[in-house]
Design brief:
The longest helix is centred in the middle third of the chain and has 19 residues. Strand 1 and strand 2 form a beta hairpin. The protein has a domain of 52 residues. 1% of the residues are buried. The chain has three helices and two strands. Helices cover 44% and strands 13% of the residues. It is rod-shaped. With 75 residues, the protein is α+β, with helices and mostly antiparallel strands.
């Protein structure tokens, strides 16, 4: 994502393409797609590892049983 952001900063969000007939036209830079896909992957990883508020609500921790408790639990 950082590499794509650097390329976008350097070259801009559009690029000029030339067709076989010699005509030129402006299109979205391929780095925009790369950046967007990397951003989506980072967001999905964040959700899987509980890094978003909604993902943290789905995390559950089992309660300790009597045999798992130690002397420090009573303090």
């Amino acid at each position: 994502m950082e590499a794509a952001a650097a390329q976008l900063k350097e070259g801009g969000y559009t690029t000029i393409m030339t067709n076989k007939g010699g005509g030129s036209y402006e299109i979205k830079s391929p780095w925009v797609t790369i950046y967007n896909e990397a951003s989506d992957r980072a967001a999905k990883l964040g959700q899987q590892f509980g890094l978003t508020p909604s993902a943290r609500t789905r995390i559950s921790v089992p309660a300790k049983t009597e045999e798992e408790k130690d002397g420090w639990d009573e303090l």
